[in-house]
Amino acid sequence: MELTLNTIFILNLSFLLLHEMDAIRNKEWKMFIYLKNMEDDKAYQIFTVMHLPIYVVMLFVLVNYFSNLELMIYLILDLFLIFHSIIHYIFKRHSENNFNSSFSKIIIYSMGVASVIHLCGLIVR
């Protein structure tokens, strides 16, 4: 069971990184209030740099504190990815939403589904 939960967790982190790569291609910054009116080059740079602290904190915690904070990290990431999938669903008709391909949708909604499965696994373990 533990190996399966860890595999789902790692798969979900991988989906998150894939999604962020896809977000650059789809110019996700055009959906953000403060970035949507900027030139694409500047908005792209700000959007990309905004992810740096998220990645640093996420990787720092995983490398240094994971064994001590495992359940909390699992819960935070799972809840975030479920919320993230819901937000993408709510904004699916946004005029600047370019995540219309099956590829993008599979990545986004796989994170939410995998998080629900992971949370259920945590509950029953």
TrEMBL record:
UniProtKB keywords: Membrane, Transmembrane, Transmembrane helix
Source domain of life: Bacteria
Transmembrane parts of this sequence: 6-24, 44-66, 72-91, 103-124
Pfam families from the UniProt entry: DUF6713 (PF20460)
InterPro entries to which the protein is assigned, alphabetical: DUF6713
Name listed for the protein in its UniProt record: Uncharacterized protein
Natural source organism: Clostridium formicaceticum
Organism classification: Bacteria, Bacillati, Bacillota, Clostridia, Eubacteriales
